[in-house]
Structure formats: C-alpha cells, structure tokens
Automatic annotation (TrEMBL):
GO MF entry, a single one: cysteine-type deubiquitinase activity
Organism: Sinocyclocheilus rhinocerous
Protein's recorded name: Ubiquitin carboxyl-terminal hydrolase
Compartments (UniProt record): Cytoplasm, Perinuclear region
Annotated GO CC locations: perinuclear region of cytoplasm
Biased amino acid composition, Low complexity: 45-55
Keyword terms, alphabetized: Biological rhythms, Cytoplasm, Hydrolase, Metal-binding, Protease, Thiol protease, Ubl conjugation pathway, Zinc
Biological processes per GO annotation: protein deubiquitination; proteolysis; rhythmic process
Amino acid sequence: MSRVSSTAKRYTGSSYTSHYNSYGSSLTPSLGSYERDKLYLSSSASRFRNYSSSSEPDRGRPIPRTDLLGGRRSESLSRTPAKSYGSGLNGGSGYSSYSYSPAPTSYLSSSPVSSSISLSRRKSVSQSDLTHDLSALRLSETSSGNGLKQSYQSRGTDVSDSYGRARSSYGLSRSSTAQGLVGLRNLGNTCFMNSILQCLSNTQSLRDYCLHNSHCRDLNNNSRTNTALMEEFAKLIQTMWTSSSSEAVSPSEFKTQIQRYAPRFVGYNQQDAQEFLRFLLDGLHNEVNRVTVRPRGNMEDFDHLPDEEKGKKMWAKYLEREDSKIVDLFVGQLKSSLTCSECGYCSTVFDPFWDLSLPIAKKGYGEVSLMDCMRLFTKEDVLDGDEKPTCYRCKARRRCTKKFTVQKFPKILVLHLKRFSEARVRTSKLSTFVNFSMKDLDLREFASDRSSSAVYTLYAVSNHSGTTMGGHYTAYCCNPKNGEWYTYNDSRVTPMSASQVRSSDAYVLFYERAGL
C-alpha cells in the first residue's frame, strides 16, 4: 500500500448535517454557507455530492458558525483554499483529490486545484501475500475457475443462514482463544481495507450486532434501499468469528458491495484507511437507519435555551433523522463557540461527529502525547483580519475567538492522527511518535460538562508503515474474548505484547468508553 487518493471529508447536502444544522441557531441566516464549510461532521458518501473547499482543513474538524449574529461571513473563509494536514496519504487535502481511481469526477473537489493528477500505481508491500497464496495452493483455486479472489460467500452464507444452529460451535466447540483470529487475504492493494475490517471486527458491540443477527431487524428492506453492504459485512464478521484461525478469509464479496456503494473503491488502487472507514460507516448506517421516513426540516429556535438543554434538543432532532446502531456506537456531539471580542456576545452551535482528526503537536523537545494533540485540536483560536465574522449585535465584522469542546462523547471514539501533509512540491508524512494511553484515557478536560463520562480504553489501532511513496497497513487489536493483543497483517495473525502497541506507525486509534 503506498500513495492513496485523499478526499476532503465534507459532503454538501449531507444526510447527517443538512437538516441537523438547520436547528442550530436563528442567529445566522446565511446557513448554507456555513454548511459548505463544515469539516468531518458527517459523511454522506451515499449522496456523492461535490466536495467544497475547506476553510480550516488544518484542524480537521468542524468550525463554528462564523457570522455570529447573522450577516454575510467572510468570503475568504468559504472560498480560499488552504493547506491541510488531512487523512490521506497524499495529505488529505481539503481542496484536492487525486483521480486515479475510476470513481466519477463528481467525487472530486470543486476547487480549481483538484485537477486530475496521475499517480503511478505501486504494489502494496503485502502484495506478496497473493504470490504466497498462489504458491501454497499450487493454483488449485485457479483451476476451479474461482481464482485467488474466490468469495467467502458460500461459507459466509452457510454461517448466516444457520447461525442459530452453529452457535454452539461458535461458543463451545472452538477454543475461545481462537475466535476472531482470522486473517484477510490481500486482493491487491487492499491492506487499507483489511486493517479497518479487523479493527471493526474487534469492536465488541458491533461484532455482537452481526453475530447475533440483530442487524436483520434494522435492515431497510424497501424498494429504494439496498442492504447488500450491511448483509455482506455481517457475513464477513460471522465468518471471521466462526472459522478456524488457520484459515484466511477472502473479503472479495464484501469488496464488491463497498465499491458499489462507493465507486471510488472500484479496482485495486491504493486508498486511505481513515477515508475507507468513513465511507463504510456511512454505508452501514444508511442501510440500518431506523428512520425510514425523515420528518420535514422545520426551523426551531433553541437559542434562548441554556447550552446544556440546547445541545440535548439538537441531539434529539438529529436522531429524528439519523438513528442506527452505527450512530449509537460511533457518533458524538461537538460544541462550537464564537465570542465577539467587542461586545462579548457568544454564539454556540452543536454538531455531530463520527471521528476526530487530530493535528500532531510539534515540540522542540520531549515526546508528543495524545493529550497534546487533543489540546491543539480544541485550543482557542482567534479570527481576525480577513477571517473576521460579522457580529449581529455590533452590525459589523469583528475580531472574535472560537473554541471547541465535546458535548457528548460516543461509546466508540475514533481518533485519527493526521500524519500526512501536502506541500506545493511533494507530500510528506509525519513519523512523529505519539504516546497514547491504552487504559484510563481521561478526556474530561475537553468536555463541555466536566462531569461527562469520558474515560476510554484502547482496543484497536490501524497502522501505516512506510512513506507516502510506499507503505503498508496493519492492525493491532485486543481480542474481546481473551483480552490478548494480536497483529493482523492481511492473512497473517500473530500474538503480540501490549507493550508493542504504541509506535510511530499508529494512524487511527479505536477507544471504547469505560463502563459499557
């Protein structure tokens, strides 16, 4: 796995924000411009709208409404492209998307800079996995007409259809230490996908949702909704937890469905693991959304309410449209505050988030910690000069400060370390070692309400080793059955020490809230 396509993670017309934000505040009539500038709040990949340019991609997170009390926001904020330290291996640019993938051009940034840039395809370091399998199998699969990419579907279908009967084998006949220790074959530069799938497979609540077939109750089986992605994902998880640990599973049928949902993943080009995660969670959510008929978006004024109550009201409004097991697990709520430096007026906005993209702090000496990155993410910024918003009370553009806090912590917190930055000449990767807690990660410092439950335990890490020119994804996961850590390197699964989990390759961290 080497260079990847990076896409700004902002989707206009998002199912997660287009109506949710309309409940935000009556203080800002120019709501459309605000929505176009939101970062990382939602992923409406299913709509596949054009991405717009980022106003603050260097922070990789949502920005608050910049016109405090209405009026036109600074044009420079909505139209001026800026550099990003985003998620993609080519920099995660807020305004650039490399179009070597066969995905339609509608997935590209609308910014003029997003012209197609031809990238040479490099083999994943793990591409040898395919050669190894061919040699070991002596082409036996190929001779049967299925090839190395033969589907796990027949086995997965058996597991799915007879899971109730096979449950005894899942729970009794197999050693508990072997459950879930199944590798995934690399189909060709798909280590990014395998890494994320292993992390999700070891997400206990999501795993149980699939193993117990609970997802079947939530499938939106109507004429307008395709549920194949959720069904294949569940089959794959079931297969991974009911197969012998010595067998590697081919995720080819799952790949077929994810690329139908998100055509940017068609073929065998290199991709970014965090982007893949966002598309996948979005697709799964859409197919098990408990809301089948969304209410009409009506404007409600919550600005007279205290912030705590306002946040709860807006969260309830969000759930009226987006309510699924995926939301139950992965979605939290951010509070964005803007304060006018002249009159002191404070405007607050509450927005959902699926993950937090953290800039990596720079230190002249000493190690960088995850808490340093969180503090940089939430630090108070000053909007001045061309960035000054218009204050409704002052009726003029004023210098102001903006601040982010977490209003609602999710059950599963996904933290993305922004290691890839894009310069004018070349893309670079930050190999900074970020020290992170594996137990008792206390994030109450960043909560809007310090009494919030915000203590987390690490259970999975998606790693990227190498450079922007050539690299590979793996996963480190704590098995929820035996509490031991394992390295998942495509088809190979090996035990590891917990002391080895922290490394400079850590890219996406998966935390579970304590007490669940």
